[in-house]
Amino acid sequence: PEDLPTYTQLRVGSVSSRLHVPFVGQVSTLRLFLNEMFTGVIQTENDEEKGHDGNAIVTFSFHEDQVKVTTGKTRGIATVEWEASPLGDVLADSVVALLMHAQSSAASIRLTSQPCGHQRKVSSSSEENEDGDQPPSKKLREEKSQSTTESRLRLIHNTLLEQFKNVEATYESRVGTFEIKTDAGLESGSLADDDVLICNVRVGFEDDMGIDSKITVECNDGKLATNIQD
């Protein structure tokens, strides 16, 4: 293509494509799904230009910035931009499918779901029954809180199992510990037959609501640890 202007009267140009896709999901969910499917995803936030909700506009780019996904600029819309090419068109198609999957799959619903925050008045006399036990409604709320954190920890375990073959999970109250064993890393590459790379992941929720959590990853492969934490 570089020789066309020299030997012919043709000019070489590029075609940029843009597609607006309905998206009402969370940015964190989209980030997780993009990192699961693609490598080298770069996230940038434009603090100077605010979106429809007052937050910064978030852009995800990969494949040497030839494919970009922008969210937050228009309410309920994600913009996909790419340089038209056989490879770029295939990547753009997969991104559109991922956007639809990220807001409708069971995994995304579990990640973004929140328990009802409405409170009901409970009389002091019903807080404890004659035997000193907690009322059934209070027990039910506690069981729901425990089931929320446990289900999200198990969801994280299932997500890790999709990426790694050997993942052992240990649950204790609101904390989940996952031991990942793999024979290849991002920095270390493929290991010898007898060598195993071990990464320890600890996820702890701050309360029974299962919304805010702290994630720590210990691994000799720094790049792999960063991808797991993201």
UniProtKB/TrEMBL annotation:
- Where on the tree of life does the source sit, at the highest rank? Eukaryota
Which GO terms of the cellular component aspect does the record hold? nucleus
The primary site where this protein sits is: nucleus
Which Gene Ontology BP terms does the record give? mRNA processing
Keyword Repressor in the entry? The reply is no
Alphabetized, the UniProt keywords read: mRNA processing, Nucleus
Residues covered by region (Disordered) = 110-151
Q: Where in the cell is it found?
A: Nucleus
Q: Compositional bias (Polar residues) at which positions?
A: 110-126
* Presence of the UniProt keyword Ion transport in the record: no
InterPro entries membership? CPSF73-100_C
Q: Which residues form the Pre-mRNA 3'-end-processing endonuclease polyadenylation factor C-term domain?
A: 1-228
This protein is called: Pre-mRNA 3'-end-processing endonuclease polyadenylation factor C-term domain-containing protein
State the organism's lineage: Eukaryota, Sar, Stramenopiles, Ochrophyta, Bacillariophyta
